[in-house]
Amino acid sequence: MIQVKKSRGIPRNLLQLEALLARLPEAHPKREEIREELFKRRSGYRGERTLDFILTTMPPTERRWHTFHDIRLQQKRYAFQIDTLLLSIHCIVLMEVKNFSGEVHFDSGSYQFTRTNNKGVQRFSNPLFQVQRQQTQLEAWLDYHNFPPLPVISIVVFSSSHTIITTNQAAHAQAISVLHAEALPEKLREIESKFNKPWLSTNQASSLISLLLNNHQELSSNCLKRYQIHPADILTGVTCTACQRLKMQKSLKSKNWRCPHCGHHSKNAHIASLQDYALLIDPSISNSEARHFLEVDSQATARRMLTSLQLKVEGSYKNRRYLLPIPLPGAE
């Protein structure tokens, strides 16, 4: 039986890239790089969601598996992220999810991982090494927290059933850790049959579940710094929730936003734009910064929009800053 303890949300770096691409001028020199990275991130997220669907719809297993999606832990100075972790009292299963089209090839002689499609042959980081590093880090993390050395099984999962997986003969032994997502139910039954010794008591398992949840650290990165983009390059204004174009205008009579491009009206279009600000600029905002970013003239109007969201605040009066969580409730 699969019990989801931590579900998978849209990754913050994907939200950042979407907001960044929408707010970069068409002629900006970084647009194509951002567009390509966004395509890769979306593809990876779709692959992870495919795995999630297979896990939640597979026939019930004999064993209870506690599932953690997209969990990020800190081991000493370094953090490590796991696409999917399955925990039982008998073992832990780590999954590194890949969404590739075409044919992928593992070569143990050169330690290379390549993909061949209509664009030719491309080399990528070897996912076997990725998941092996994660296993080593998780085992050290468990030891640090005084848990017994329960078995950890690492699997590389290709989410698309159309991906062709090949390997040379020398790499055949490694290939047992590589499979299509559709084969995962059978793989879990195989693991349940092989690993039948309980390593954790019920209380230890409950403690480990709580520890994993409490120690998860959301990745927080400066998107503009990473791509060397100046904040002044970011286009301001409220994005239309219908046509996705900027410069919605606030109606003084109806108090709604109106798009000059498609005519769409919205009461809360500014909320998604405030989330863009949190993703790209700063997780907190002042009244004057909100007026500049949303292109609102009135200090009172900006204050009403911010206070209506019931945000946590820091400081008072002129130094007041409103904290913008992600996701921001009410965003369309």
General description of the model:
It is a single chain. The protein has 332 residues and is α/β, with parallel strands linked by helices. It has two domains: 2-215, no CATH class; 236-323, no CATH class. The chain has helices at residues 12-22, 31-57, 127-144, 184-194, 202-215, 223-226, 269-280, 287-294, 299-307, and strands at 2-6, 65-75, 78-87, 92-98, 103-107, 112-117, 120-124, 152-158, 164-167, 178-180, 249-250, 257-258, 265-266, 284-285, 313-314, 321-323. Helices cover 34% and strands 23% of the residues. Helix 1 runs antiparallel to helix 2 (31-57). Strand 11 (249-250) and strand 12 (257-258) form a beta hairpin. The relative contact order is 0.13. It has nine helices and 16 strands. The strands form four sheets. The chain has a six-stranded mixed beta sheet with strand order 1-2-3-4-8-10, with helices on both faces. It has a four-stranded mixed beta sheet with strand order 7-6-5-9, with no helix packed on it. Strands 11-12-13 form a three-stranded antiparallel beta sheet, with no helix packed on it.
Write the layout of secondary structure elements.
Layout: E1 2-6, H1 12-22, H2 31-57, E2 65-75, E3 78-87, E4 92-98, E5 103-107, E6 112-117, E7 120-124, H3 127-144, E8 152-158, E9 164-167, E10 178-180, H4 184-194, H5 202-215, H6 223-226, E11 249-250, E12 257-258, E13 265-266, H7 269-280, E14 284-285, H8 287-294, H9 299-307, E15 313-314, E16 321-323
Parallel strand pairs: 1-2, 4-8, 5-9, 8-10
Antiparallel strand pairs: 2-3, 3-4, 5-6, 6-7, 11-12, 12-13, 14-16, 15-16
Helix pairs in contact: 1-2, 8-9
